[in-house]
């Protein structure tokens, strides 16, 4: 933004300091003059015969004192303003460096805590978060490009084989192309859902995690039975505020992951909800292979999978827990991943509880709904 040139803050502070010193000196001189003119201390500095003599003798001294105060105020104010604004200069330099795209620079302002150091620390924190966010986005873009390139490359290979071998049966080709295309569509939809969650582009509504969890388990029950997994649900009503569609996706992803990444047979999934005064919790646990804390710490990053997950028939795009994390953050909640001692994973989602009056109003509305 183009702005008209103006005085620097240092010069403004200098003039303000000098003006204050000059004003204070003038007030003191005026007070001294009126004291002498009233004969409060006659004969101490001058032989006072009349007001004219007093003014003639007092004026040169007052002028000299005011001149000294003006010079002292300007020089002292310039020095003090420079010392006071030195931290601001460092912050400005760091801002200019960040504006060029370099987010690794930090101010690290030394000294005890004051307003400038609070500003510098806040700026350093902002730079650290921006740097981490940009790095994550770059890694995400690289991984997304790689993941999207894989089905496209497979499709191209299948088409090349079919073109070079006209006598090859098209039935097998169509089936394989359908599988590859379905994976590409699922990946694209997952990326769009992740972007939607990050942007918080939804209207907050009342939602109950316990009802969403029941719906998710009923929907995925055939998959669990197919894989020999038992689902156990328990808990209380957990009213919260957010996007029911996104929260439904969150519960679906958690239950689906718990079913797919389980024991080959006789696995178990526990889905539990609990309500507290200020927050509600959804916990999904499953049996499975033993996971290290280091591996668990990366599972909620985009395109990260467990050690043998990518080789399964339900490997997915590696975005399930990343989507859960983004949806949780979009609802001002926290996501906790903990490896179970006996194997498997424990995932806990904590969200703010709905205000009591909203929860009661929704309960009354559901109770009086026709057909219940």
- Class by helix and strand content? alpha+beta
Poorly predicted runs are 40-47, 307-315
Overall residue-averaged pLDDT value = 79
Count of DSSP-assigned helices? 9
Q: Tell me about the biggest sheet?
A: 5 strands, mixed
Question: Which fold name is given in CATH as the topology of the largest domain?
Answer: Heat Shock Protein 90
Number of strands: 7
CATH class of the largest domain: Alpha Beta
> For this structure, what is the CATH homologous superfamily of the largest domain?
Histidine kinase-like ATPase, C-terminal domain
- Our measurement of the CA-to-CA distance between the termini, rounded to an integer number of angstroms, reads 61 Å
Number of domains: 3
Percentage beta strand? 5-15%
Strand order of the largest sheet: 2-4-5-7-6
How much is the radius of gyration in Å? 36 Å
Condensed summary:
With 372 residues, the chain is an alpha+beta fold. The protein has helices spanning 9-37, 51-99, 115-164, 170-199, 209-226, 244-260, 293-296, 320-330, 356-367; strands at 205-208, 229-235, 239-242, 267-275, 279-286, 334-339, 345-352.
Structure write-up:
The protein has 372 residues and is of the alpha+beta class. The protein folds into three domains: 9-99, no CATH class; 138-199, Orthogonal Bundle (Helix Hairpins), CATH 1.10.287; 205-307 and 317-360, Heat Shock Protein 90 (2-Layer Sandwich). Helices cover 59% and strands 12% of the residues. The strands form two sheets. Strands 2-4-5-7-6 form a five-stranded mixed beta sheet, covered by helices on one side. The protein has a two-stranded antiparallel sheet with strand order 1-3. Strand 4 and strand 5 form a beta hairpin. It is elongated, with a radius of gyration of 36 Å. Residues 40-47 and 307-315 have low confidence and may be disordered.
């Amino acid at each position: 933004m183009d702005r008209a040139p103006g005085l620097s803050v240092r010069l403004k502070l200098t003039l303000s300091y000098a003006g204050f010193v000059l004003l204070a000196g003038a007030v003191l001189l005026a007070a001294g003059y009126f004291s002498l003119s009233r004969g409060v201390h006659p004969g101490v500095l001058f032989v006072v015969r009349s007001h004219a003599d007093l003014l003639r003798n007092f004026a040169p001294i007052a002028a000299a004192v005011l001149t000294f105060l003006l010079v002292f105020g300007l020089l002292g104010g310039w020095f003090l303003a420079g010392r006071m604004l030195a931290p601001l200069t460092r912050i400005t330099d760091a801002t200019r460096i960040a504006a060029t795209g370099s987010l690794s620079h930090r101010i690290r302002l030394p000294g005890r805590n004051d307003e400038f150091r609070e500003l510098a620390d806040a700026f350093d924190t902002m730079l650290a978060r921006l740097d981490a966010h940009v790095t994550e986005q770059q890694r995400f873009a690289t991984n997304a490009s790689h993941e999207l390139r894989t089905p496209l490359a497979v499709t191209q290979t299948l088409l090349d084989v079919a073109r070079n071998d006209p006598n090859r049966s098209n039935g097998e080709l169509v089936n394989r192309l359908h599988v590859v295309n379905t994976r590409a569509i699922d990946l694209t939809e997952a990326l769009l859902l992740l972007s939607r969650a990050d942007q918080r582009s939804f209207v907050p509504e009342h939602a109950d995690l316990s009802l969403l969890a029941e719906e998710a388990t009923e929907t995925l029950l055939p998959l669990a039975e197919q894989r020999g997994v038992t689902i156990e649900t328990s808990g209380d009503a957990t009213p919260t505020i957010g996007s029911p569609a996104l929260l439904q996706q969150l519960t679906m992803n958690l239950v689906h992951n718990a079913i797919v990444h389980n024991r080959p047979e006789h696995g178990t999934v526990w889905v539990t909800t609990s309500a507290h005064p200020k927050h509600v919790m959804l916990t999904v646990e499953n049996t499975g292979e033993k996971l290290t804390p280091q591996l668990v710490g990366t599972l909620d990053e985009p395109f990260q999978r467990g050690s043998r997950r990518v080789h399964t028939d339900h490997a997915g795009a590696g975005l399930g827990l990343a989507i859960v994390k983004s949806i949780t953050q979009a609802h001002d909640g926290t996501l906790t991943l903990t490896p179970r001692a006996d194997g498997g994973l424990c995932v806990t989602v904590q969200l703010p509880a709905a205000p009591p009056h909203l929860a009661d109003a929704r309960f009354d509305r559901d109770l009086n709904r026709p057909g219940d």
